Structures are given as structure tokens and as C-alpha cells.
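User: Fold this; C-alpha cells only.

Assistant: Input:
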Amino acid sequence: MPNLRFAAPKERRVALVTGGARGLGGATAVRLAEEGRDVVIADVLEKEGQERVAEIEALGQKALFVNVDATDESAVQASVKQTVDTFGRLDILVCCAGILGWEKPFEEQPVEQFDKVMKINVYGVYHFHQAAIPHMLKGGWGRCVTITSGARHGGPTQVPYCVSKGAVYSFVGSLGNAYSKDGVFVNGVEPGRALTDMVVPRFSAEHIAAPGNPLGRYSDPEEVAEVIEFLCSERNTYTTGSVWSVKGATG
């Protein structure tokens, strides 16, 4: 570790990653394990979740899959309790669980669809932070990172998703300073389009090969995971309440 006088000693800390079975969450779970973290995969995709567990265990770290619906507050509380009961601590929370919802004009988006997107993308983030942060405060150190999106600026065919990501951006700003003196930092990451199951099926192979952005490609999930890992690390000694852009371009 660099000579950072305010850095905590690096430990075998415990991370909980929502949506950790695949995509950005899966890449992040593995990256955290590579840094010596034990990892809990919180997801509804059991097969993929168990595959990530095996991958993490092959790195010499402990891992656990918990099948949990992020919209169910009691289930979220139970998953955090199971984490602490199993590992004795919880130090890192990464919220990657999320859905895009329908891509349709606003007048074709029923309120039920708005509710579904908000419950997963916003309420889930709220539930997990509320369940996890008390354990971090008890330990005197914690790092939380949530995925937001440039869609927060608005999109006419993705209104529920855009609103949800705007809410997450505000959530990070609101909570970022709440516990900083207690050693608990809350941040966000705003990726551009990464090559995940949420993005790839929406575009042609020709577009994926040459999307027309400044870098000429979309990111691999592992590139976004690098930034998340830093924000979750002891090396992060002075960043809280921020949303880091990992978009490969400005704007």
C-alpha cells in the first residue's frame, strides 16, 4: 500500500455485493476477492451466483451465496445478519443489483412498471445501506459503492430507469457525508455502457464493435470493477459522497 498516513491497515475484510452473480457485480465480487476480501454474493440468480462463489474460493477467499430479493426489506436484513453471523463482520457494500425496465414511450409505461424499477433500483439500495452501515459503524470502518448511470440526465423511452438512477445519485450525495468522521464512506460509480447482459442484447453486433464513442468501444465489466475496488479499499482515504465517472469520455 502507498504511504497514506490516514489509511487503515489492510485486512481480510468482508464484502457484500448485490447483483454479484454476473455483470458489473460479478466482476466486482471477483476483483474484491483478488484483493483479499471474503465476499457474499447477494442475488436471485443462484446458478450464476454459485459459479462466482467457486471462482472466489479458487482465489483462496471465503465466499457465500445468499438468495435475496433486494425489494424485500426483511430479506435484506436477514442476508446482512447471515453475513455477520457467518464471517463476524461486514466492511464493504457494493450495490450493483438493478434492472433497466421497459424501453417504451412514457405514455406506455404503467405505474406498475415504475414501481418495479424503483423498488429494485432505489429501495433495494436504501434497504441494504440501512442494514449494513450499523455494522460498519461498529467496526469503525466501511466503504459503500452504488452504481448510478448517465441516464439520470433523462431519456424519453426509459423514464422509470432514469428517475431511479437520478435518485441513486442524490442518495450518494445525501449519505456521503453522514458517517465520514466515523470512517464510513459512501460513493457511486457512473459507468458508460459496459459489455454486460443488460447492454449487449440491446444492440447489434456491428454497433457493439464500433459504438461511435470517443474510445471506439464499450468497457469490459472488469474495467469498471477496478474503480469500484479502489473506492472500497483502504487506499481510499479522502473520497466520499462522490460519483466517479467511468464512461471513457467526458460529459
